[in-house]
Amino acid sequence: MPDQAAEQVMDLRIEGLDAEGVGLASRGADRVRIPGALPGERVEAIPARRHRHRVEGRLLRVLEPAPERVAAPCPHYGECGGCSLQHLDYPAQLAFKRRRVKEALARAGVTVDVPSVIGMEEPWGYRNKVDLSFGHDPSRGVRLGFHRRGRWHEVVPAAGCLIAPPELLAAVRAVEGWALAHGLDAYDPRTHTGFLRTLLLREGRATGQRMVALVTAGAEALPGAGALREAVARVVPGLRSLLWVVNEAPSDALKVDRVQVLWGEEAIEEELGGLRYPVAVESFFQTNTLQARRLLATVLELAKAAPTDGVLDLFCGVGTFALALSPRVRNVVGIEWVEEAVQSARRLAEAAGFSNARFLAGPVRLLLPEAAAGLGGVDLVLLDPPRSGAGGKVMRKIGRAAPRRVVYVSCNPQTLGEDLVHLLPFGYRVNQVRALDLFPHTPHVETVVRLERTGR
C-alpha cells in the first residue's frame, strides 16, 4: 500500500514572496504558500491546510538553496512568532521591502523612483520595548517567553532573543525565579484562570532609563513585592520604573485597570528631536529609537516647512512630528484619538514654549474640517495613520482642505496605496518616496511619501 505521507510531499520551485515574506509556488491550479522558503529555491513541502485553490504548506527541506539564504542565528527561529525573515540575508531583506513599496504604489497608479531602503548598520538588539507572556512549562513551572507560532497559548523561552537588548532581558530570569519561589501560576486565556499574565520591558535608548512592568490578573496585594523589587533592581541597570499592573479583562490584550509603583517612577523618558518624551506602560513610542530618529529627519526633509506654513498633523500620537515642526512654521494643529496621548503632547508643547502648537482629541475624520478652517489656510498636512490606513473619508477630506503639500507616513504599503487612490484625483502627484527599515528580520517597512498639489 503506498505511503500516504510520501504521496503528499510536494516538490516545488519558489517563484516569489508575498507581502508577509512567505514563499509562493504554483502546483497545478493551486497557489502554495511555504513559510521559510525563498525565491528561486527548489523545496520539498507538505500541505498543512487547504482553502479552495490556496494551500498552506510546511517546509520539509531545501533541495536547492537561494544564494541569499543564511542560517538563522536565533535559537528560537521557526518556533517564535516573530523575526520571520531571519533566513534571508539583510541586504536581500531591504531589497524585498523596496519591492513591496514599489508594487503597492504601482497598484495605486503611481510611478516614482523608490530609493534603496534605509536600513540599520547593526540590525540586532534594536527593540526598546519587549512584551513577554507567562506560560506553564511542565518541567519547571512558570516560564516567560514569546507566543509560539501557530499555538498562541504556548510560549517559547525569551532567553537568546537577538532583537531585544540584554539589559532588558536580564529581568526575565529574576522574575521567573521570584514567581517560582512564591508558587505563582500563569494566567490561562482559554480558561481565564491563573495570576501572572505578561511582563512588559521598556527602555529609553538615549536616556538609559528602563522599566519593568508586571501585568497580572486582579488581586488585593502582590505576593512578595519586596522580593520582586530586590531581584529586579539587582540585575537591571538603569532601572527607573518597576510597576505592578492589574488587568482584569478576559482577553490577552493589555488593559490597565490599576497601576501600582513598586519602585521609582510611573514612567521613563526617551529623547527624540531634542525633546524628552514620557513613556508609560501604555504609551505608543516607536520601538526602534535609532530608526525613529532617521524617520523624523526624513519627515522634516520631505515636509520642506516654511515659517508661513499652517500645518495639520493627523494621527499625531504624542506629537513627535508636530512638536518638531512647531519652531519652523506659523501654526500646527495635531489631531489624535487617544486622549492620554493628546494630554502628553499638550504638556510637552507647554514645557517647550511652543505656543503655536495645539492638540485636539477625537476622530480625525470629524475634527479635520474644523481644524483646517481654524488654521486660516492649510499649507501642509502630515499624517501617520495606523496599519489599517487613514481611510477614504479622511483622504477625501484632506483633498478638500487643499493643502499645497502632503507627507504621508505609512507602516503598511498596501493601505498606503489604497489611501492614495482617494487623494490623487484632487490634483496631487507623488514626487518623493523614502522607505526605512524599523523592524529588521520582519516583512514590515515604513514608507514616507511626499505629494504636491499640481491642480485639479
From TrEMBL:
One of its GO terms (molecular function) is rRNA (uridine-C5-)-methyltransferase activity. It comes from the Bacteria. Keywords: Methyltransferase, S-adenosyl-L-methionine, Transferase. S-adenosyl-L-methionine binds at Q286, F315, E336, D384. Residues 311-415 form the Methyltransferase domain. Gene3D superfamilies: 2.40.50.1070, Nucleic acid-binding proteins (2.40.50.140), Vaccinia Virus protein VP39 (3.40.50.150). The active site is at C411. One of its GO terms (biological process) is rRNA base methylation. PROSITE patterns: SAM_MT_RNA_M5U (PS51687), TRMA_1 (PS01230), TRMA_2 (PS01231). Belongs to the class I-like SAM-binding methyltransferase superfamily. RNA M5U methyltransferase family. NCBIfam families: rumA (TIGR00479). This is SAM-dependent methlyltransferase. It comes from Limnochorda pilosa.
